[in-house]
From TrEMBL:
Pfam families: ABC_tran. InterPro entries: AAA+_ATPase, ABC_transporter-like_ATP-bd, ABC_transporter-like_CS, ABC_Transporter_VariousFunc, P-loop_NTPase. One of its GO terms (molecular function) is ATP binding. Keywords: ATP-binding, Nucleotide-binding, Transport. CDD domains: ABC_DR_subfamily_A. PANTHER family: ABC TRANSPORTER ATP-BINDING COMPONENT, ABC TRANSPORTER ATP-BINDING PROTEIN ALBC-RELATED. Transmembrane segments: none annotated. Residues 2-230 form the ABC transporter domain. This is ABC-2 type transport system ATP-binding protein.
Length: 291
């Protein structure tokens, strides 16, 4: 399987935050969700991938190439939507298309205007007249108009209403129908990850905690509930994000398969209950562990 993006031991130190030797790979033809709480390092990672910031150490390869020798080629093959949309506010959407198109070797003006029509964005409006949702749609149309092989989005659905979020997620799924293309998008909205991601990468406090196919994560991680009044010390040590309440103790584990025989008598007596979990609950448990 060919990797469209490879990051090895990426490190960036700020005064109050450090991106700690981040490593991840994204295969061609898939969507990866980069998920974590605010301030976890998602945007820093994406800015480094886009060569928008200098980093202290590590390697980034995109399409098997590095920025040092191939920056123009790489950026012609990437579509990027940042967390904030920066435009010339007093210029029209049509003007923005003409301005941006100059910077790409392959630009499909018809595709851009088809996307505007689909998104219901007027080409004659000034940028300052567009709502937040419309600005994201404009950014996405500009990012897709040069037929990128890798689409990178930083919190694209944050602050948008559910209808616009759904429209954007549908577009991302359409992008990878061409199996030569991939999508990397960061978010703290785990519901979006559940809907469309093939791979999930958790980043907490500047560190990759887990990166794997979504189905493998959801298949491996389980929620374990121990009925109140019972203690199982050998189980507690294997749980993360432990919560205690009136009903007992609960936590998550990725070691359920190896514990089945040990848990069998407890399950039979209804002392322990095992349930599937979610991308969101796993994130919450990771954050609790870091605290």
């Amino acid at each position: 399987m060919e990797n469209i993006l490879e990051i090895s031991n990426l490190r960036k130190e700020y005064e109050e935050f450090t991106l700690k030797d981040v490593s991840l790979t994204l295969p061609r033809g898939y969507i990866m969700g980069l998920v974590g709480p605010n301030g976890a390092g998602k945007s820093t990672t994406i800015k480094a991938i886009m060569n928008l910031i200098n980093y202290d150490s590590g390697k980034i390869k995109i399409f098997g190439r590095d920025y040092e020798n191939h920056e123009e080629e790489i950026k012609n093959r990437i579509g990027y939507v940042g967390e904030e949309q920066f435009f010339y506010e007093d210029m029209s959407v049509k003007w923005m298309e003409k301005f941006i198109s100059q910077h790409y070797i392959q630009w499909d003006r018809d595709e851009f205007y088809n996307l505007l029509e689909r998104f219901n964005v007027s080409s004659t409006k000034k940028v300052q007249e567009l709502s937040k949702g419309m600005r994201v749609k404009l950014s996405l149309a500009l990012a897709l108009a040069h037929n990128p092989e890798l689409l990178i989005l930083d919190e694209p659905t944050s602050g948008l209403d559910p209808v616009i979020r759904s429209e954007i997620l549908k577009i991302l799924l359409e992008v990878i129908q061409d199996e030569n293309k991939s999508v990397l998008f960061s978010t703290h909205i785990t519901e979006d990850i559940e809907k469309i991601a093939d791979y999930v990468t958790y980043i907490i406090d500047g560190e990759i905690i887990l990166s794997a196919p979504k189905d493998d994560i959801l298949g491996k991680w389980k929620s374990i509930h121990i009925k109140t009044g019972y203690e199982i010390p050998e189980l507690n040590s294997k749980l993360i994000g432990i919560e205690k309440n009136f009903f007992g103790i609960s936590g998550l584990t990725d070691q359920y398969e190896s514990m089945k025989s040990m848990l069998k008598p407890y399950l039979e007596k209804d002392i322990v209950r095992v349930e599937n979990t979610s991308i969101d609950q796993i994130l919450i448990s990771f954050v609790k562990e870091e605290k």
